[in-house]
Amino acid sequence: MTTQITSTQPAARSRKEARRRPAGSSAANVGRPGFTWALPATLFFAVFAIVPLVMVAVLSFMSWNGLGSPQFVGTDNWSRLLDDPVMLKSIWVTLLLTALGILIQTPLSIVLGVWAAGYQRNRAVLSAIYFVPLLLSATAVSVLWRALLDPNFGIPADATWLFGDGNLFGEQTTAIGVLAFVSTWQFTPFHTLIYQGAARAVPQVLYQAAEIDGAGRYRQFFHITLPQLRNSMITSMILMTVGGLTTFETVLILTQGGPGTDTTISAYYMYEKAFKSFDFGTGSAIALTLVVASTIISLIVVRVSGYDKMRSSMEGVS
């Protein structure tokens, strides 16, 4: 008698769940929203991203100064860009700043993120202070450092023993160094936050097993923590790449592309062409080039790293 009662409990539970399930739905679809839920976001993305991108692509084959009707010129805008030495130089500067950002911010973010994931004393307070630059806009950060590094009234004027004449914006090497430093100061906390969350998700049993085997702190970091941060590292590097290729405010406020065109990146050159020279056709061509380059580089990173094959073992768990 007891066996019969026990065996009927799962069946009764299944019938109860079936009554709660909406008509026409299957067990595999329970908990998964339909396309209707994504429709508002899809429409928003189409209106504010896809449509403007198509318009920019069309305008890249036009000649337009902002007044009157655009005139179709074919590939003239693209041909001029290929022969423009400033454009070619801006691509090199853009790639250089992007590479510097990845090489500097990645190891720094990993170390700080792993440290912030621990339970040290005063860790929360120090982490909160360190994350303050993340709350500021790129414009505010650029204005702040422009004032601090002013050759006449800023820090370099009072520390000539370190900065020489104090004009850090007068040479290409120092100007690029300033741009890399300011970007690192502002965006490292964001990537640190990524690694902090990833480091806290590493199973503690791995570290416990390593301690039993006699592995020290450094061996645990290089043989357990770093491998477990691989997917987060790829995500962070993709964000750095796209951010480096599309950054604009920092160059506009700090160097304005100078000295000369030594720090003119592609995004800033797009601004000069479109809004200073009123050559919106060429500016659109540069913008489309940046979009295509960012997409291609991101896809290459995803493909080479195997990130596209990553599967979550927690998929569908509620």
Automatic annotation (TrEMBL):
The reply on keyword Lyase is no
Instruction: List keywords of the entry alphabetically.
Output: Cell membrane, Membrane, Transmembrane, Transmembrane helix, Transport
Q: Which GO terms describe its cellular component?
A: plasma membrane
Q: Which Pfam families match?
A: BPD_transp_1 (PF00528)
Which positions fall inside the ABC transmembrane type-1 domain?
A: 91-301
Q: Which SUPFAM superfamilies match?
A: MetI-like
Family annotation (InterPro entries): ABC_transporter_permease, MetI-like, MetI-like_sf
- Gene3D superfamilies found in the cross-reference section: MetI-like (1.10.3720.10)
Q: Has keyword tRNA-binding?
A: no
What residue spans carry the Polar residues bias annotation?
1-11
Bilayer disposition of the protein:
Multi-pass membrane protein
Q: Where is this region: Disordered?
A: 1-28
Q: Which residues cross the membrane?
A: 42-64, 91-116, 128-148, 280-302
GO BP annotations listed: transmembrane transport
Write down the superkingdom of origin: Bacteria
Task: Indicate where this protein resides in the cell.
Answer: Cell membrane
Q: Which family does it belong to?
A: Belongs to the binding-protein-dependent transport system permease family.
Q: What is this protein called?
A: Sugar ABC transporter permease
Source organism of the structure: Streptomyces adustus
